[in-house]
Amino acid sequence: MAGKTLYDKLWDDHVVKQREDGTALIYIDRQLLHEVTSPQAFEGLRLAGRKPWRIDANIATPDHNVPTTDRSGPIADEVSRIQVQTLDDNCDEFGILEFKMQDHRQGIVHVVGPEQGATLPGMTIVCGDSHTATHGAFGALAHGIGTSEVEHVLATQCLIQKKMKSMLVRVDGELGPGVTAKDVVLAIIAKIGTAGGTGYAIEFGGSVIRGLSMEGRMTVCNMAIEAGARAGMIAVDEKTIAYFEGRPYSPQGDDWEKAVAYWQTLQSDDDAEFDAVVVLDGSQIKPQVSWGTSPEMVVAIDEALPDPDRESDPVKAEGMRRAYEYMGLKPGITMSDVVPDRVFIGSCTNSRIEDLRAAAAIARGRKVSPKVKQAMVVPGSGLVKSQAEKEGLDKIFVEAGFEWREPGCSMCLAMNADRLGDGEHCASTSNRNFEGRQGYGGRTHLVSPAMAAAAAIAGHFIDVRDMA
Amino acid sequence: MEKFTQFEGIVAPLDRANVDTDLIIPKQFLKSIKRTGFGPNLFDELRYLDEGQPGQDCSHRPINPDFVLNRPRYKGASVLLARRNFGCGSSREHAPWALTDFGFRAVLAPSFADIFFNNSFKNGLLPIVLDEKIIDELFQQVAANEGYSLTIDLETQHIIKPDGSRIEFDVDPFRKHCLLEGLDDIGITLQDAELIKAYEARRKANSPWLFDVIK
Q1: Which residue from B4, B206, B121 is spatially nearest to A258, judged by alpha carbons?
Q2: d(Cα B145, Cα B147) in Å, to the nearest integer?
Q3: Which residue positions in chain A have pLDDT lower than 50?
């Protein structure tokens, strides 16, 4: 019999009941809550007269709606204010731990969870947010769910699920200088497409993935959903274990030893079989930029934009034509011909300390181009922000002409005041370049933090390897 | 949830692939704390010529006459015909809420994104996966025949065309059962409360750190 994949192990450990129809009742160790997808779930509980099954399995923080400017007063937008207030009220009513907007631990839920040690290896982790796969970087089974399932987990601590198929995405070799985790995951999505991982849980492996820091691994797993997969995960190694040493909610004392012994088993067996295997050569990956309105519409920075007339699949070609029209771009140009009106460094994909260090290394001693209307840096959490300030990164950014903001989702999806104007191009370290995502008529180009900073300085997209 | 059995409805064709959840319901409308009222903002950026705001009365907004749902022949449509990877993007259940609030009860496409697919069933919206060739034919037939309607019969898992011919479709047995009976699956899970408690007790013994109180 073949060995088990990491996904098999995590799945098997959480089966409460295997049902005859092929589904299973799966136990959920941790639920993360934010203000956008939880109010209707709490309301559903109340209407049905139900109580949360296990209050201490939940942790909450507002992130999507919060302003990234001054927070001394209430949120100016009334509808946003009510939504954040509703989260506060629900958490207070049910006794759920919440890092409220004024708390220095507040931030993007996917940055806060690991940072607190509230998401750990071996856990099943859910959140009403598709980027929950981020937590899979630690050898956990983590995925996004809808609001009905948020309510289901609150009420039962379980989900009814069917096991997904397994895919191994192996990135071999070594990355060249200036090439980051973001470029790796964009290259993966470009290769397998935005539906390539649909129905699969993806395990990322290979020497390139093992060589990434935990922050980089989170960036890769974060975008599993942009490849169509609800869950992305990476095997536990020494880096994973070291990451959790001394975190507030990490296991302590004897429990730590016990936990580490268990965590060390969280890898796919050598003889495990996957339903699909995709291999990339890491040494061939260059800095990536998205040009279109789907995360698979990506080119290397020195590559010409593709011609829809040469695309053999008519549905794809039509999508490309529509994307060119929306983006105001033409096939054959390179991305260095494009000026970003705004630059956004942040989001659950790229707002951790390592991301800010990489952007600051480019910004240091340089100035944002006058062609760029606004360049902003939005740390992923209050703790990331204070760490960056301790390292003097905020000063580097401000001196270069970047705005230094308070933590939240911000311009990744523009639910707060941070957004693009109609027709504006943005060099963005976020995860989605859909039409209107960053603001009505806005045009998003997904890049790594270093590439975003480089575009801000140069006044056009540029190969970060030419900026060293 | 209302029981889902059989219905007949006008088919509206949305001829583009990778329709994402931001397109189905843009983020500004996600600030609502309700499950209802999203219908007027379904496909907001395609349907109207201006930028929509939450809470706004949409009846006076300039509509985009070219958008399929604004064309008189598709008025009252309850079946959406779509292309591959429908519902990709975020986990927002507001997407199926907006589709059902508008009046859709089924979406036919060659493929769906996982989270959207799952969310739809929880809200009485039936996503049906059909072969790309069948979808192509349906697009042609809808274009050629004004008022083109399909009957969707969940019980027998058939789509019945105007000429009486049938297309069989697959649906997961548990999800079918829940839709047909209008069941709340939290209630079903809670029938296994003792099993959940027993699992928790085992887990607490093996991995006590997972039960450290987060406070």
Answers
A1: B206
A2: 6
A3: none
pLDDT, tens digit, 9 for 90 and up, residues A104-120: 999 999 999 999 999 99
Chain A 150-179, CB below 8 Å of chain B: which residues?
A: 151-152, 155-158, 160, 162
Tokens representing A248 are 């507030």
Q: Torsion angle of alpha carbons A344, A347, A349, A353, nearest 10°?
A: 90
Contact A368, A379 (CB under 8 A): no
Across the interface, of B33, B93, B190, the residue whose CB is closest to A86 is: B33
pLDDT (tens digit per residue) in B21-50? 999 999 999 999 999 999 999 999 999 999
Token look-up 């779930």 returns A41
Report yes or no for ipTM above 0.90.
Answer: yes
Percent of chain A with pLDDT over 70: 100
The reply to whether A79 touches chain B by the CB within 8 Å rule is yes
Assess whether pLDDT exceeds 70 at residue B208: yes
What mean pLDDT do residues B72-77 have? 97
Task: Report how far residue B100's alpha carbon sits from residue B71's, in angstroms, rounded to the nearest whole number.
Answer: 19
Buried b (16+ CB within 10 A) or exposed e, A255-269: ebeebbebbeebbbe
Question: If contacts are CB pairs under 8 Å, which of residues 111-140 in chain B contact chain A?
Answer: 111-115, 118-119, 122-123
Instruction: Decide if B30 touches A, using CB distance below 8 A.
Output: yes
- Rounded to whole angstroms, the Cα distance separating A11 from A419 reads 39
Name the E strands within A7-151: 15-18, 23-27, 30-33, 58-60, 97-98, 124-127, 141-144
Which residue on chain A is closest to B191 by alpha carbon?
A: A156
pLDDT surpasses 80 at B201:
yes
pTM as predicted:
0.97
How far from chain centre, in Å, is Cα A114? Answer: 12
Task: List for chain A the helix, strand, coil content (%; round to 5).
Answer: 40, 20, 45
Under DSSP, the state recorded for B20 is: B
Strands of A353-402 (E only): list them.
Answer: 374-377
Radius of gyration of chain B (CA): 20
Q: Which residue matches tokens 């949360």?
A: A52
Rounded Cα gap, residues A91 and A231, in angstroms: 27
Determine the distance in angstroms separating the CA of A80 from the nearest CA of chain B, rounded to an integer.
6
Is residue A124 within 8 Å of A29, Cβ to Cβ? yes
Q: Are A381 and A410 in contact (CB under 8 A)?
A: no
Which CA distances in Å does B183 have to A154, B1, B153, B177?
Answer: 18, 6, 18, 8
Tokens of B52: 């929509």
